Amino acid sequence: MSTASNLERVLKSGNFAVTSECGPPRGADPEAVKKKGGFLSGYVDAVNVTDNQTSVVRMSSFSASLILKTMGFDPVMQMVCRDRNRIAIQSDILGAAAWGINNILCLSGDHQKFGDHPTAKNVFDIDSIQLIQCVRKMVDEGRFLSGEEIKGRPSLFIGCAENPFADPFEIRAMRLAKKAKAGAQFVQTQCVFNVEKFGKWMEMVRDLGVHEKVYILAGITPMKSVGMAKYMKNSVPGMDVPDDLIKRMQDAPKEKQAEEGIRICLETIEKVRSIKGVSGIHIMAIEWEQMVPEIVKSAGLYPRPQP
Amino acid sequence: MRLSYPANVKIVKVPCTGRVDVIHVMKAFENGADGVCLVGCLEGDCHFLVGNLRARKRVEYAKQLLDECGIGGDRVVMYNLSSAEGQKFAQIAREMTEKIRELGPNPVKSAKS
Amino acid sequence: MIVADRKPFEEIIEMLKPYSRILLLGCNECVTVCAAGGAKEVAVLASEIRLFRAKEGKPVEIKEVTLERNCDPEYVETLKPFIDDFDVVLSMACGCGIQFVGERYRNMIVLPAVNTTFYGVTEQHGVWAERCQGCGNCVLDKTLGICPVTRCAKSLFNGPCGGSQGGVCEVNKDTPCAWQLIVDRYKEMGMLDRYLEIQPVKDWSTSRDGGPRKRIREDLKI
């Protein structure tokens, strides 16, 4: 069954999909969302809206999704299990679907230890895979987790995330298989810097036949500076930035580092595109959204397929 | 050797510094001691293998407790020396006495008077 | 055992401010094993309090008593002959013991000298670690003896999350990733295919979420 999702339409039509992301502001000003959205307009098939990412309080994912929706985007509302129990989760899903949000990305969520409220109580009533099952059940069977019937069934294209670079590596493809089995239709991966390792993971994914069950979008992040590259390597758990990339960034003169970062990003896109089973890219230009149009154009992915 | 050391040092014999518990140190202060000095064998030379190493950890813990309750962890010190170092023992006794004199009497005693 | 940790001294001394006759209560069970509130810890804390208060010129009288258990009426009853001689009870027993003594002696205030932290094991002398959260619905059969509820910082039933690196949890580098341990165990037992089973949504009503729990065995009731 198809939804009204533009992302689903692009993927099903066999086009190489491009998504990007928009982190809501730490305040109530809708202009902040519109400004970020403005950079992306016309260059992406869908925009992810993060849900209190890194456990820092921000405008709700649903509200920011709605703002982007009014701008003509097809938002992918991210939802984490950290802050809501199954009651709130299902309620928010109904609300989002009522407002025409077509995509949901199911995540466990970063631990609150890393955020601005480390003394908070976490929820984790269900985990990301159970969340996928929950949405699947709501969409396909028109039933809540309790089994009770939903009056006015939501329609959503269901996604998930996976980190091919986290440990234990050997089960990372199996974990995606579990998510596919739970009902995920697309996956956006952690930022790919180590293309070789990503290729190995994709091989394991293909061995399990998972690439035929979910659309795989490789995560892409342009590096602004060598400082950012080092920070990602050393301080962000589950991030794999190979030394040769750090060296390339380091060897570039300071004023040319951003340019080198974009070059690396474009090379990465080129490489992942050639890997069998990769259906698109997800560009996470962290506080650098204005670069997305250039990246999409330079990668030969512009214009985007229109409905 | 007939070495002399300050008469205010009262010696409590134990079979090994490993026998000394935190409570013994605390009780010494409750009973009016101004300082406590543990003298154990050289590290690596314990007849019971690790008695003196354990004692050192307990001394560290006792220091914490004494700091918390306002007596001052500085009043407990541990030294390691061999039984052949009588001279050094006398010197430690003198040093310790001087150090404690600088710190003044056990604050519990001055509060009472 | 139930593991506890002594409260900071300043906090204890602040609670004791209005009182000068203190019954300091220890317990011979769990808190003795985890060296938080047994006879030894009672003696040391009593000494520390006496020293502090003597220095302040506000001496205290402390009676040190360590019960066999604080969570059984027969032992709690043994305090009866002398408990009224004191202004307050300062307990080094776990949260259960502290409450149970207060329930029996309604005219007494029972203060906590420890923070009760978790159900755990002695990993090595002086090191205790959490193993169980008492969720009331054990899944150790499915995860081959490693509890995801307790040992995963996010209690994931279908882990590991993307923060597992080098066998370590992203939340604390001294904490092993529970799901790395589970996967290792599946491999050890030749059961890695079990990883593919999706663990269903958990019924938390048997846990604290369902309200305070009670267990009754009619055949044992008198």
What layout of secondary structure does this protein have?
The complex is a heterotrimer of chains A (307), B (113) and C (222).
Chain A: H1 6-12, E1 17-22, H2 30-40, E2 46-49, H3 61-70, E3 75-80, H4 86-98, E4 103-107, H5 128-141, E5 157-162, H6 172-182, E6 186-191, H7 195-207, E7 215-220, H8 226-235, H9 243-251, H10 257-273, E8 278-283, H11 292-298
Parallel strand pairs in A: 1-2, 1-8, 2-3, 3-4, 4-5, 5-6, 6-7, 7-8
Helix pairs in contact in A: 6-7, 9-10
Chain B: H1 22-30, E1 36-40, H2 51-68, E2 76-80, H3 86-103, H4 107-112
Parallel strand pairs in B: 1-2
Helix pairs in contact in B: 1-2
Chain C: E1 2-6, H1 9-15, E2 21-27, H2 30-33, H3 39-55, E3 61-67, H4 73-76, H5 80-83, E4 88-91, H6 95-104, E5 110-112, E6 114-124, E7 127-132, H7 148-151, E8 168-169, E9 172-176, H8 178-188
Parallel strand pairs in C: 2-3, 2-4, 4-5
Antiparallel strand pairs in C: 1-6, 6-7, 8-9
The domain count of chain A comes to: 1
Fraction of residues in β-strands of chain A: 5-15%
Largest interface: A-C, 36 and 30 residues
Overall 3D shape of chain C: elongated
Q: Give me the Rg of chain A, rounded.
A: 19 Å
Category from helices, strands and their pairing of chain C: alpha/beta
Architecture of chain A, CATH level 2?
Answer: Alpha-Beta Barrel
Reported for the largest beta sheet of chain A, the result is: 8 strands, parallel, barrel
Structural class per helix/strand content of chain A?
A: alpha/beta
CATH superfamily caption of the largest domain in chain C: Response regulator
The CATH topology label of chain A is TIM Barrel
Oligomer: heterotrimer
